[in-house]
Amino acid sequence: MTFSLLWLPQVLRDAGLIVNEVPGWQNHGHGDEGTVLGVLCHHTCGPLHGDLPDINVLVNGRPDLGGPLCNVGLGRSGQYWMVAAGKGWHAGAGFWQGVTDGNAHFIGIEAENIGTSNPDGTPCEPWPDVQMDAYRRGCAAILKHIGAKSIMCAGHKEYALPHGRKDDPNFDMMKFRADVAALMGIAAPVSTAQPTLPTMSDVDWIKTFQSAHGLLADGLVGSKTIAALRAALT
Questions:
Q1: Which residue(s) pair with 130 in the sheet?
Q2: Contact at 8 Å (CB) between 129 and 14?
Q3: Are 219 and 206 within 8 A, CB to CB?
Q4: Residues 102, 99: Cα–Cα separation, whole Å
Q5: Among 5, 54, 77, 158, which has the minimal tally of Cβ within 10 Å of its Cβ?
Q6: What pLDDT shows up at residue 225?
Q7: Predicted model pTM
Q8: Alpha-carbon gap, residue 194 to 213, rounded angstroms
Q9: pLDDT number for residue 49
Q10: What is the pLDDT of residues 150-188, one digit of tens each?
């Protein structure tokens, strides 16, 4: 089966980016992607050296989680790799701007970086300028193509629930979104405050999650809801 994100390489190339295509990416995915509403940014937590040494993991998965684990990989050189035109297991349980199924509605970009931070919060592995430039331009190109605003570019750490479950990517997403907005030719958000995300006790979020997963949207965290949350976390 050929999946629906076949437009993605050309959109990135039209933005002046280098795109490599993993053989068979057009038919790779856990079912087809839904309506694309934004981009979810990640780092790989992989090896220190190499351009995209994690490519086999992104394509084939891990012992505990089958591949593909994203739609696109981004190497330290600023080159992209097409991993899957279908759905990738990259998001897990979360919430961002009303979206609760990140796997179905966000294009997942896994950027190669060891992913650890110093005590002062700075990345242990500095992000190369060429990689960050490609990251920003790629996100801007995707958002323009789908007609979305820069706020629909989220970090996994912002989307993931419970809060603190994920820490990627380990750079300032507010600054990143402002740069993406500038590349899109639009004004950055006026507020510099971090968008408010719901907590696990937020009844409205629970109802939204339940509805998205075919459960009775009563806002109560019963056994079926807990089972669905556990499944979404894997």
A1: none
A2: no
A3: yes
A4: 7
A5: 77
A6: 78
A7: 0.81
A8: 27
A9: 96
A10: 999 999 999 999 989 999 999 999 999 999 999 999 754
What is the rounded distance in angstroms from the CA atom of residue 69 to the CA atom of residue 110?
A: 8
Whose tokens are 């079926």? That residue is 224
Helix intervals (H) in the chain:
8-14, 55-60, 102-105, 129-146, 156-159, 173-183, 203-212, 223-233
pLDDT in tens, 61-82: 999 999 999 999 999 999 999 9
- Which residues are CB-neighbours of 186 under 8 A, at least 6 positions away? 149, 150
CB atoms within 10 A of CB 56: 11
Q: Could you tell me the CA-to-CA distances from 165 to 109, 121, 144 in Å, in that order?
A: 18, 17, 30
d(CA 169, CA 25): 24
Nearest to 205 by CA among 91, 39, 94, 92: 94
Q: CA 224 to CA 67: how far, in whole Å?
A: 26
Q: Which residues pair with 90 in a beta bridge?
A: none
SS (H, E, C) 72-131: EEECCCCCEEECCCCCCCCCCEEEECCEEEHHHHEEEEEECCCCCECCCCCECCCCCHHH
Q: Is the distance from CB of 107 to CB of 153 less than 8 angstroms?
A: no
Q: Is the confidence at residue 191, as pLDDT, over 60?
A: no
Tokens of 22: 């993993």
